[in-house]
Write a structure and sequence with these properties.
Blueprint lengths: L1 H4 L9 H4 L4 E8 L2 E12 L11 E13 L8 H15 L4 E7 L3 H9 L3 E6 L9 E7 L9
Parallel strand pairs: 3-4
Antiparallel strand pairs: 1-2, 2-3, 4-6, 5-6
The structure holds coenzyme A.
């Protein structure tokens, strides 16, 4: 499914990559078709060196893939997926969500900013074709009534 969504090859892993235990994936279905997907790592964060596996970080979610099939893009599904991810993070007590995004990926940057993400840093030559990547961060304050 990622192959259909990402314009650049290498921005998604092989199926064996997504089968790794630390990565969990959810799909948006239309009938029996997968039309959207989110893959992320719980209690992990980004790495400045993209060749190194994302390190563990308690309380953080690191998104691995966030994609909608081209035919269904611009229809609000990405927004629904992002709202779902944030609700998932809050429900499970996560305090941060991180995504790394190509600097040229205006759609994804705008989607993240719409939901309150801010640019935390820039990773030089983050992608296989040497494009730089922004790290976007969303801080989730503890729920009201939580004393810790
Ligand atoms: C990024 C992506 C998931 C957005 O999904 P989508 O279903 O098209 O997004 P939505 O229709 O829900 O739009 C939600 C918001 O995203 C932003 N957005 C989406 N497409 C955009 C575009 N082409 N240009 C600028 N902003 C865009 C807007 O802020 C939009 O809010 P608005 O409609 O109020 O302006 C989708 O474009 C995609 O799958 N791209 C290819 C894979 C990819 O690059 N994934 C991100 C990797 S980090």
């Amino acid at each position: 499914m990622e192959q259909k969504c990402y314009p650049q090859k290498g921005d998604y892993g092989k199926p064996s990559f997504y089968a790794r235990q630390e990565i969990i994936s959810f799909w948006v279905m239309k009938g029996k078709r997968r039309i959207g997907s989110i893959s992320f790592m719980r209690h992990h964060t980004y790495n400045e060196n993209p060749d190194i596996w994302p390190p563990r970080c308690h309380g953080a979610i690191f998104t691995i893939s966030f994609a909608v099939i081209p035919r269904y893009q611009h229809g609000g599904i990405g927004g629904i997926m992002m709202a779902w991810l944030i609700a998932y993070a809050r429900t499970h007590g996560f305090m941060k969500i991180y995504s790394t995004i190509r600097v040229s990926n205006m759609a994804s940057i705008a989607l993240h900013k719409k939901f309150g993400f801010t640019v935390k840093s820039l990773i030089s030559q983050c992608y296989t074709d040497a494009e730089n990547g922004f790290v976007l961060e969303l801080a989730l304050p503890p729920k009201a009534g939580c004393s810790s």
